[in-house]
């Protein structure tokens, strides 16, 4: 078999496209056939392992229906102690790598997940497919080239992003800056500085990162317009030339210095719940259309957009996991009673709406009907105009992080982001918590650190923005006139102080920032201690 | 002049046709779109040439030359763009805007720039058409066209150099040959001696045709093979021609020497004779050339003939698939091959293989991605394309391993009656060369030719399998029956043994009988048990375990009872007359008890006070199909007052006393749905008649 680089050298770009991006052109029947075949094989593999037999409760289903009917949904606790102790003998397939999350305080140090060989190869293929799609202007457009410079702000191995990068490098010779091995020994700040210093010399062809980081970087450029760092790295001729060129471009366009003046990337892939919010801003700063990807530690790639970010939502991957979609209400019922067997829908049974994602590993992975905990919205089940036959999804929130306002409306992180975006609020950071007020019942209190300082009417503005951007919210509160939004401001620098304090404590990457939704009492106390609070809208 | 016009006109038509073909077959590919633009440019350029060739008007000729000059850059540029797209060149981006400026600018400069590009036209003596006076702009445009073509050539050569695929290199070679042809063809215009000929037109045509072929026919004939074959055929033809001319001139010379003069007609006749004589030689040489130089093609043709001849006659699927694989492996020099055949579950089972180390049964599932692909698109499938199918993601891990183990290069669907009945997988050739279009055609032809034979053999094998399965089922039934027979025999044996035990127990018990009456009761019971035991004994000794020869039974029973009841002082002669009558168990048992009771009664009571007597026992079939059991003695007779011959089942007569024995007999006769008559004359005579069939149906309750 010719490698991707071989195909590219030979100009066989249509084959390259078909091989790596053909998954976005699958019909629903083809998609389901892949899912079903791999699931049935996976069940056999699970049955051959001690952990798998335990999860299947000794009975191996022989059909998808039987599987859905008989096998209970699982959480990470069902995989203890095997996964935390990384017991390879108990797994369906020997892993070539282990990936980890940053963990959850008080439960276990971190979540570990095995990566079998076939799954690793699949990660690499999806990675390359994602890059091709991110830079494609139309169907079949392949713009990758050998030694394209790949800049990333994602965490290195053993985090899943790093493992995906490594699998991608095995698939195609991108030039990662900094190299993946080098990045493993650096913390986030070091990595960023090194990456951008190198990128000043090499240029950037592809970029992978989180939306907020891209915006923060862009803003950082704007703030120091005309006064670029004079570090040693910047003194190299290539970097100097790039900086001069960028400044000239910015001057000519009468714009503040922005990343787009330095680089002209072919594609930018962004993940995270805030992509929709930052999309326009990133595009303005970087001059490239943002391509959205969605992944997780347990299943690697979950979904990506279609070519050139043309699709509104993301298309699920066919062979990384067997996907089931649990309606929100079923999830609530299951949370109330863990013995409840919730109803789920398969990809070909979906209707637009909100679902909690449930996945079963394929290709020798270990997770079985695993509740990922992400709340996704199915926007549409197909897009005939684009020739897409698969459902399109967007990520709404963590399913556990919903703020239930008296059962009338469930506020997600996404809905609050949308409201902020609607207000065009230059927020640096915020968290939101549900509170029960004695006279008014449930409200959402948003703790916000705003560059614009004190805004007296922020609660009303946010309430208005939520009515504008959320149909559910509008239905619940638009007519009655009640305002369940309360705002407290935190002193500028609170979140930065929190981050630095956590870093000084040696906290994991995932704990450096407070959870955006429903932070714990301890986290809130820490924030308030650091920044104090001032209630804008007493309630 | 006519030749120039014809060539020009022909080229114009060809360009239009090429546009149509490429547009229809390949317009969806990016490189093909640029190629279409190139063809469009060539068509306009050729139209300009045609105008020049056909006109006698200098103004029209000037316009024609200006069209030629104006559109020359467009075909050069679009050809370069086509190559950029084809081999995925992402550098030298500045070329693109520059090219477009040239493409759109050159018509403006040519037509609005006065004499800058084409100043005027003139006629040269001996030259059939107008010639142009070129301005400096023409040379600039010419350099641009050459630059574009050289740029394209450079990238084609470079791509061919780095390509690891022989098929791809082959395709690029076609294009690489085409570009120098164009450059050389147009260079001919600068030589006054060649200017009169449409060399540039022909050269451009060749390039356009080669490129179109390369685009439309994705997998091309091996160009080296084409050239080799062309040369070899030419060589053969040359040899034959030389022999022919030698023969003719020799004959004419000999005739001249002998006759001293030359006759034209005779020379013609000799030429014709030589031609006829050379024909077989040509055929023979051609055959030899085919065999020598085109060994594989020759072998393939022979193989196809052999397979189609013999496949229809072979019904054994293993033999057939084995034969096909052997033939393919031999003719095409293939190391590994496998034949998968559809089985009754819809999957495809490995029926035959060559060069594969397979330990276990190998089967492609009905929903195997390759099977579904081949069923939907019944064409030869190149294994190297598998990885690029989105559906390849549906491969199970074990199927991936199997696929790697199979290491197939081509998969050939075997289609019969519109359905995929088999898959032929062939591995790499021993020589390491790729499969060409011819090879795939041979394999597809083979698959088509053998499909019906394969399907017939498959159905035959399925029928054979069914028959064998049925035979096995029958054998299993027989075995089972035998087992049941043994079991039943054993049961009868055990029943008989158990009855024998009861008999022995009663015998022991009788030793402790307090009085004669008790002793008699016990003895009667013993006799009844023995008669039943005897039935079971006869049954397990019988052939079919279903019925017994009652005549034989009766004789045994009578003898046993006789031994039991007679003593030395009393001599009773038994006269047993039986016919062979087979009675089933449910009839034989009551009948045996009746016989036992009647014989015992006779032996006990008929000869009281006498020292001798005759007891006649018989069983025989009646004329009307009934069975007649008779027990008669010449003893004292029965102590009852009934008219002779009258006895009814409810005891219509009055017995002196109704014994248990008689009650039993009456009950058993009723069970048999039979009749019993009794007569008293010189002794007692009992006749029981019944119909076995009816009795079987009777309710024994």
The value of Rg of chain A in angstroms is 24 Å
Tell me what portion of residues of chain A adopts beta-strand conformation.
15-25%
Total tally of structural domains of chain B: 4
- Major sheet description of chain B: 6 strands, antiparallel
Molecular shape of chain A: globular
> Largest interface, and how many residues on either side?
A-B, 35 and 30 residues
The CATH topology of the largest domain in chain B: Rhopdopsin 7-helix transmembrane proteins
DSSP strand (E) fraction of chain B?
A: 5-15%
Could you name the CATH class of the largest domain in chain B?
A: Mainly Alpha
CATH architecture of the largest domain in chain B: Up-down Bundle
Tell me the overall shape of chain B.
elongated
Radius of gyration from the alpha-carbon trace of chain B, in angstroms? 54 Å
Largest sheet of chain A: 7 strands, mixed
* Assembly type: heterodimer
Number of helices of chain B: 19
Alpha-beta classification of chain B: alpha+beta
What integer is the average pLDDT of chain A? 86
Low-confidence stretches of chain A: none
Output the strand order for the largest sheet of chain A.
4-3-5-6-7-8-9
Could you please describe the fold and organization of this structure?
- With 539 residues, chain A is an alpha/beta fold.
- Among the domains of chain A are: 120-292; 402-535, GMP Synthetase, Chain A, domain 3 (2-Layer Sandwich).
- Chain A has helices at residues 4-9, 13-21, 28-47, 50-55, 64-70, 117-135, 160-171, 180-184, 188-202, 211-223, 237-253, 259-262, 275-286, 328-336, 413-423, 458-469, 471-478, 494-504, 521-531; strands at residues 95-100, 112-116, 149-152, 175-177, 206-210, 267-271, 290-296, 300-304, 315-316, 321-327, 345-346, 353-361, 370-380, 392-398, 403-405, 409-411, 427-437, 441-450, 485-490, 533-535.
- In chain A, strands 4-3-5-6-7-8-9 form a seven-stranded mixed beta sheet, with helices on both faces. Chain A has a five-stranded antiparallel beta sheet with strand order 11-10-12-13-14.
- In chain A, a hairpin with a 3-residue loop joins β15 and β16 (409-411).
- The longest helix of chain A has 20 residues, at 28-47.
- The termini of chain A are far apart.
- Mean pLDDT of chain B is 80; it is low at 218-224, 642-657 and 694-701.
- By secondary structure, chain B is α+β, with helices and mostly antiparallel strands.
- In chain B, 62% of the residues lie in helices and 13% in strands.
- Chain B folds into four domains: 2-220, Rhopdopsin 7-helix transmembrane proteins (Up-down Bundle); 227-287, no CATH class; 298-467, GAF domain (Beta-Lactamase); 549-697, Heat Shock Protein 90 (2-Layer Sandwich), CATH 3.30.565.
- In chain B, strands 5-4-3-8-7-6 form a six-stranded antiparallel beta sheet. A five-stranded mixed beta sheet of chain B has the order 10-12-13-15-14.
- The interface between A and B is medium-sized, with 35 and 30 residues.
